[in-house]
Amino acid sequence: MRTILYPGSFDPVTNGHLDVTIRASHIFDRVVVAVAVNSEKKPMFSIPERMELLRKVLKNYPNIEVASFHGLLANALKEFDACAVLRGLRAVSDFEYEFQMALMNRQLNEECETLFVMPSPDYSFVSSRLIKEIALNGGDVSAFVPPDIARAIRKKAEEGNL
After folding, report:
1. Which one from 30, 50, 87, 128 is the annotated catalytic residue?
2. Annotation marks residue 26 as catalytic
3. In the prediction, which pLDDT does 67 show?
4. What percent of the chain has pLDDT over 70?
5. What is the pLDDT of residue 14?
6. Cβ proximity of 43 and 77 under 8 Å
7. CB 44 within 8 A of CB 10
8. Strand pairing partners for 23?
9. Which residues of the chain fall below pLDDT 50?
10. Known catalytic residue: 156?
11. 1 vs 10: CA distance, rounded Å
């Protein structure tokens, strides 16, 4: 069984994340969407909330699993028995950082291969950071995230938890 690991903060998950995930699910036997802990970011949703939202929007894809991990990605690859890491590239500006991370991960784990996938052009400008900014300023994010995610963001905003 060929497994690919798709790590990220997914805070919130966007249509671009889903596009990359679903396309990978057509190529690999198993896709593990792994919510990573990033202490440098102030999250909108907790890790359990992100995992629940991901499971909700990916429920119709039996070969996609949702998990979380702490620590090094190179170690998570082994933990999930994955043959490669999946990373989305929205623009050339993403490449330098992702390239550096891919080389570092390979240095830490020589079996760590990274596959880069470009999202559909419809989503190439969408990022979680921009979604948060729109939501914080009272904007409508429904064009950029699935309906369940848009509802969860609106609820956070109504509760004053953005």
Report:
1. 128
2. no
3. 97
4. 96
5. 94
6. no
7. no
8. none
9. none
10. no
11. 25
